[in-house]
Design a protein that fits this description.
Its cofactor is heme b. It is an enzyme of class 1 (oxidoreductase). Its EC number is 1.14.12.17. The chain has 404 residues and is of the alpha/beta class. The protein contains ten helices and twelve strands. Helix 1 crosses helix 5. The two termini are 25 Å apart.
Length: 404
C-alpha cells in the first residue's frame, strides 16, 4: 500500500507520467542495452524491442499498477502482475535484476520529465516501483519453489532432447521433447508454455515461449508456427531456427513450465476459443481432460483460414470425440462445409453453456471481437480469460489482467 503522501503525488502526476511513459520506456531500454548489451543475449526478446511491443507493454503495466494503487488502496493489485511473473520465471529473472532495471528506468524518468521530476515526485514513483517489484519478486519466488528451482541453483533451464518431429501444416511443426538427463518431467498445467532458448547465427541467444500441446510423465510436446524473420523484423528468428535445424536427437535448452491461463478445478462448463496457432494451449487443455477421463461439459470454438491451415485439426477432433460432453464448432474463411461454418467466428447462432469458464487465445483483434460477443451473450467479464503470445498489449476493461 502506498503511503498517503506518495499516493497523493502519484494521483496528481499519473496523467503527466502516462503521457510520457512511451518515451520513458523507449529511453530506458535504449540506455540499458547501450550499457548492458549482454542483457539481449538470452534474456530480452530483441524482436519485441525492434517492434516496440515490449516498451508499450511495460508502460501499460506501470500505469495499470499505479492506477490500481491510488484508485483501490484497500486492495493489493498483485493479481495484475501474475502474467508478468510467469513470463519472468520462464526466463530465469532474478531479484538482483530489478536493481538494474530501477537504475535505468529512473534515469529515463528524470531525463524525460526534466524539472518536473522533483525529489517528491521521484520518491513517490520510487515507492510505486518497489511495491511492484516486491510483488513480482514474491510471486516469482513462489513459482520457482513450486517448480523445484532452489536458491542455490536458481535457473529454470534444462536440456531436453528432441525425440519426435512432425509437420502439422505447411508452417506449423510439433517437437516432442524428453529430459536429456533422465530426470522427471516437471508438472505441466493444461494451457501452460515453456521457453526455448537457442543460439542464433550471429551468436546471440534468444528465448521464445511455446505452448505445451501435450505432456505426460516422460515427455512434453511443443507446437511451433514458423514466422518469417527479416533483418528489420526479427520476430520469427527462433521459430525459423527450430523449423530449419531442430532434428531428432538434438538437444534444446528449455525452461520450467509457466503461464497462469489454466482451467480451474471443478465442474463448471468450459468454453475454449481460439484462432490459428492459438489452438495450441486449447489442445493442451483438451489432452489433459481426455487423459483424465473428464466428464466436464466442453465447447470448443475455433477459427482458421482453411482445414489445411488448421494446426492439430485431426487430433483435436479425436480429443473432442473422447470427451463424452464435448462438442466443437469450427469456422473457416475458405473451405466451409456442412460440418464447418464459413467466414469469421460468429456466436449469434451458437448455444453457449450456462455459467461457463471461457479461455481464449489468438490474435488480439480476434479476441476483442469474440469477447464483445461473449459479453453480449451474458458471459460475465470475470469469467473470460485470455492468453496472448508475446507482450500483453491488451488489458480490457473489466477483464482479469492475469488471465496468461
Amino acid at each position: 500500500m502506498l503511503s498517503e503522501e506518495s499516493a497523493a503525488t502519484v494521483r496528481a502526476t499519473l496523467p503527466v507520467l502516462a503521457e510520457s511513459l512511451d518515451a520513458i520506456t523507449a529511453r530506458f531500454y535504449d540506455t540499458m542495452f547501450a550499457d548492458r548489451p549482454e542483457l539481449l543475449d538470452g534474456l530480452f526478446n530483441r524482436a519485441n524491442q525492434a517492434n516496440g511491443e515490449q516498451r508499450r507493454a511495460l508502460a501499460g503495466a506501470i500505469a495499470a499498477f499505479a492506477s490500481a494503487l491510488v484508485e483501490r488502496p484497500e486492495e493489493r493489485p498483485d493479481a495484475l502482475l501474475s502474467r508478468i511473473a510467469h513470463k519472468h520465471v520462464s526466463l530465469g529473472i532474478t531479484e538482483d535484476q530489478y536493481v538494474v532495471v530501477h537504475k535505468y528506468l529512473f534515469g529515463a524518468i528524470a531525463h524525460e520529465l526534466g524539472d518536473a521530476a522533483t525529489p517528491d515526485v521521484v520518491a513517490a514513483w520510487d515507492e510505486v516501483y518497489w511495491l511492484m517489484a516486491g510483488a513480482l519478486i514474491a510471486q516469482e519466488a513462489r513459482l520457482y519453489a513450486r517448480a523445484g528451482v532452489g536458491e542455490e541453483v536458481r535457473s529454470p533451464w534444462r536440456r531436453w532432447a528432441v525425440t519426435e518431429r512432425r509437420s502439422e501444416t505447411d508452417d506449423v511443426l510439433s517437437l516432442t521433447l524428453r529430459p536429456d538427463d533422465g530426470a522427471p518431467v516437471p508438472e505441466v498445467r493444461p494451457g501452460q508454455y515453456v521457453s526455448v532458448c537457442t543460439r542464433l547465427p550471429d551468436g546471440v541467444h534468444q528465448a521464445r515461449q511455446y505452448s505445451v500441446s501435450h505432456s505426460d510423465s516422460e515427455r512434453i510436446r511443443i507446437t511451433v508456427k514458423r514466422v518469417d524473420a527479416t533483418a528489420a523484423e526479427p520476430a520469427g528468428e527462433v521459430s525459423t531456427r527450430l523449423h530449419t535445424d531442430a532434428g531428432i536427437g538434438d538437444v534444446l535448452s528449455v525452461s520450467i513450465p509457466a503461464g497462469d491461463v489454466t482451467p480451474g478445478s471443478g465442474d463448471r462448463p468450459l468454453v475454449l476459443v481460439s484462432a490459428g496457432i492459438g489452438c495450441t494451449p486449447m489442445v493442451g487443455m483438451l489432452n489433459a481432460l481426455a487423459d483424465g477421463s473428464s466428464t466436464r461439459q466442453v465447447l470448443l470454438l475455433h477459427a482458421d483460414r482453411s482445414p489445411e491451415a488448421h494446426p492439430l485439426r485431426e487430433e483435436t477432433e479425436g480429443l473432442v470425440g473422447r470427451l463424452p460432453r464435448a462438442r466443437s464448432v469450427v469456422w473457416y474463411e475458405d473451405g466451409g462445409s456442412a460440418e464447418h461454418r464459413q467466414g469469421r467466428m460468429d456466436l449469434s447462432e451458437t448455444e453457449l453453456p450456462e455459467d461457463p469458464e471461457v479461455y481464449m487465445c489468438g490474435p488480439l483483434p480476434f479476441m476483442r471481437d469474440v469477447r464483445t460477443q461473449l459479453l453480449r451473450a451474458g458471459v460475465p467479464a470475470r469469467s473470460i480469460h485470455y492468453e496472448v503470445f508475446g507482450p500483453d498489449l491488451w488489458l480490457p476493461d473489466g477483464a482479469p489482467a492475469s488471465s496468461a
